[in-house]
Amino acid sequence: MKTRFIAALALSFVFSLFVQAQDLGDFKPKENKLNGANKFKSKDIYIANFSVNFQLYNLKTASTKGNFADRMLSGNTRASLAVGLDIPLATLQQITDEAYQRFVADLKEKGFTILNGDAAAHTKYYEGYQRFENMEMSLSEAPGMLTVYPTNTVFFVKGFTKDGQRKQGGISASLNRAMNNDGRTSIVDEISKYPKLSAELDEATIVNADLYILFLDVKKPYQGNGAKIVANTDLRMAAYEHINSRVANHSTSSKLGITGSTKEKQYLCVSAVDFVQGRNKIGGSPLGVYSGVLKEELPINGVVAEEKIQAYAKTDRDFIGTETAFGMMYRAEDIAVENTALIHADAGKYETGIKQALDTFLGYHVNKFSTKVK
Q1: Which residues pair with 187 in a beta bridge?
Q2: Where does the signal sequence lie (predicted)?
């Protein structure tokens, strides 16, 4: 009996260590004020979008130009860093499916009715849109990110850009995304049109959920002594954060060989769940709107080991020179350094940690939204 008791204590202690090692950091949610009131009446819900965006890689370059000054020649430098995360695609799909299922179940438990995806199939709002029952995973929405949608779920898409991104919002949103790669602005522009869809669905609440999971914090330090890039692992749910990565360049100039085959692209990641209901007869603004976001990023601890990866090309300098019949000659080499790293993570721990973050975020905002329905 004593041996069993000691063994039980040991197992309990090991389990306690595991729980403490894998947890969430400070959860700081907030409501993001959008145009509209807070008057919700209908308990019907139509989910227009649900997507989880997982950062899987980052490719970045830094460079410095050589010059000749103060009798010293400096060469060019270029540093390239590519970092990837080793996680099975099936795990990412499982995480997304279960997050969606729990989101729907939570709404139902609070008395809401979830409308079928095809309930909006014949609305004027979705005229000309394409219907998808199983949206494919996409690497086109944000640089280095894989966008995953729940399986066996109907969504309507306006179309896709030449780079494979979903078209969202109006002309202003398209221009903003093309020039600034600001995905959230395009999404907010689309959300601003949800009152039209809500009006066609007897003032059902239209929902958008778009969530971002990042695993890298990449910086370009001061480049004074050569090109340098530093990346630190940091698994988290993004609050409001720009990411940058090199992606394939599909432009005409690239095809003609005028510009490079890759280009650096920036994207704004904002984890948000938006609820929009009704439409005012004057002005067309929503009768009710609630947008749940984060004040700060939500750390997901104990899943990805803390690692620092860097690429550093130190500038070659010649300040001595070689005396020749033609005068002093200086020579400095151009230095290029490439570093590639694959970060390994336990798929089970990754799944558990991400699920916990998604459930915490969505559960909190579903509860806050439900208190506003009178």
Answers
A1: none
A2: 1-21
